[in-house]
Amino acid sequence: MLRSQRLSRILEMIQSEGAVTVDSLVDSLGISPATARRDLDVLDSEGQVKRTRGGAEALGDHQLPQIHSSNHDEFGQHKVAIAKLCTMFLQPGYVIGMTGGSTVSEVANAIVDWTRQHSAFSSPNSTPLLTIVTNAIDVAYRLANQANIKIVVLGGQLNQTSFESTGPFGIHMLEQLWFDLAFIGVNGFDENGPGTVDEYEAATNRMMVHRSNKPIVVADSGKFGKRSFSSIGGPSTVRTVVTDSDITEATMDKLKLDGYQIHVARVDQHD
């Protein structure tokens, strides 16, 4: 089990049971006591649990649940692999747009790991390591405890299914911003390009794409061939796609022929 998946699983256990012990994590997850303690320390440092003697407990009713978890997702490992590959695009000082979706949520987790590796970054004018602009409350929540990340949350009406804010308020904000990168989540990817099931989310995503120097669609291999209600646009709108190694050669060839630039993350099913 990958580290990010393990942390998500521990959070699920704590939220379900109220508390866990190091011994229970060792038994349930097959990890060493030292690994269990380190994982609990990480979750405590991020403000997601309260560390106790011999374990950890939930923070209380005010705690936001894990909206997107890849732990029980058929493509969970694929999304984690995609997220790790996405960190190759990051540079200190970048301003990054992030939509909602389970794959983008995994990108947020990967960004947390990346910021730890770049904790020594300093700027003479106090520029944050990264600035993240998002319309997804779970993405903002996952990054909220990183002191070296500036977070801007877009306004709008909350979609209570996807936990994304959409509408004219957010689009108006986006019109005033510019991004070095944007990570765009999608529900499907067909001959019309990437898309979502909600036209308002598609409009927000489309504006984020237009305001980005390098928009990047993040989509697991299961998304290809699926038609969405509302298209974000074709390769003239967003050319870069990060997917996983289970994508078929035929799909890959068609995407390249259409003008997309494809980056493939290797998935190890035995992780």
TrEMBL record:
InterPro entries the record matches: Carb_Metab_HTH_regulators (IPR050313), DeoR-like_C (IPR014036), DeoR_HTH (IPR001034), NagB/RpiA_transferase-like (IPR037171), Tscrpt_reg_HTH_DeoR_CS (IPR018356), WH-like_DNA-bd_sf (IPR036388), WH_DNA-bd_sf (IPR036390)
PROSITE patterns per UniProt: HTH_DEOR_1, HTH_DEOR_2
GO molecular-function term, one example from the UniProt record: DNA binding
Record flagged with keyword Transcription regulation: yes
Keyword Transcription regulation recorded: yes
Keywords in alphabetical order: DNA-binding, Transcription, Transcription regulation
Protein name: HTH-type transcriptional regulator UlaR
HTH deoR-type domain span: 3-58
